[in-house]
Amino acid sequence: MLCMRIEEVSAIGADKQDRLLVLATGAQISPSWNSAGTYVYDLSPSWAIPLLLLTLTTPHQPHRKEQLQYRTAPTEDAVMPHKPSTISPDIVAGRVTMETLPGCGVHVTIELACARFSAPPAVALATFQAEAGALYLAGFAQAGDPHAAIILATDSSRGQIYHITTKLGYWAYSSSNQNILGSMSLTSLIKIRDASGGAISPNGLDALLRQVPVPAGAASGECLNWVINAVMLLHQHRVVRLSSAEYLRQEFSQYVPQNRSRATRGSYPGVKVSAYCSA
């Protein structure tokens, strides 16, 4: 698997250095393939910091440490390109882009030229896998906008889906078993609750989500509205911690279309951790 292991993540402030706990030391980050010929690594710290230093290693060269350093944007609500500064002679040359949102931290994208790696581009389809017991927003490819749902993962290959679907010309709530591995339409999973937050009963979750109002008619796009309302209800019941419903909606709408090419039986859905909802 083509990935990098996070050896150390530190936030450097004006008068002290604090470890950034949101990214666990030793965690692996895996890339998605970009048509521009780069591997893209996404990191989503939960708060903005003036300076971040990442020490990374690659599996095929475990003895070699790569370091990237970048500064956050000086103002909020800005999308600004940044180049990593050289910390060591073995630095991986790349491009860093970040987006800062008020009160919600910074989203970082690191793009590395694929020529730096010996693995073929197809390996870049490898990604994080669904975690048993974790809760996800799920995006499905279809004509027009993606279909939105909630999935409680049983393991990395299957789970229980909760969503609204159109039947006989109107929206209706539905819950059933769902393949994660081998699905021809599931393209994206955004984690909103980690398994470490405690076990969730599928039946209990079903009973709770049945309380979310189902819109009348069958107007397009209502599935995402229902999902956001469902997450808000889960927040009220302390199942998840939601910092911004609107930013969560934007996160879904921006991330899922990027994974449309994964709508094949041989591709695993793109998986990321939400920057705006956790538990």
Shape: globular
Helix and strand composition category:
mainly beta
- What is the element string, with H for helices and E for strands? EEEEEEEEEEEEEEEHHEHEE
Percent of sequence in beta strands:
35-45%
Strand order of the largest sheet: 14-13-12-11-15-17
Low-pLDDT sequence parts: 1-27, 33-40, 42-52, 69-127
Radius of gyration: 19 Å
Number of helices: 3
Largest sheet: 6 strands, mixed
The helicity comes to: 10-25%
Distance between the termini: 28 Å
What count of structural domains? 2
On the 0-100 scale, what is the average pLDDT? 69
What is the strand tally? 18
Question: What does this molecule look like?
Answer:
- The protein starts with a strand and ends with a strand.
- The strands form four sheets. The chain has a six-stranded mixed beta sheet with strand order 14-13-12-11-15-17, covered by helices on one side. Strands 1, 2, 3, 6 and 7 form a five-stranded antiparallel beta sheet that branches. A five-stranded antiparallel beta sheet has the order 4-5-10-9-8, with no helix packed on it.
- The longest helix is centred in the C-terminal third of the chain and has 15 residues, at 222-236.
- The protein has two domains: 4-125, no CATH class; 135-278, no CATH class.
- The protein contains three helices and 18 strands.
- The chain is mostly beta strands and 279 residues long.
- The chain has helices at 202-209, 222-236, 245-258, and strands at 4-12, 17-19, 28-29, 32-34, 38-43, 51-58, 61-71, 78-82, 94-101, 105-113, 135-140, 147-153, 158-167, 170-179, 186-193, 241-242, 270-273, 277-278.
- A hairpin with a 6-residue loop joins strand 11 (135-140) and strand 12.
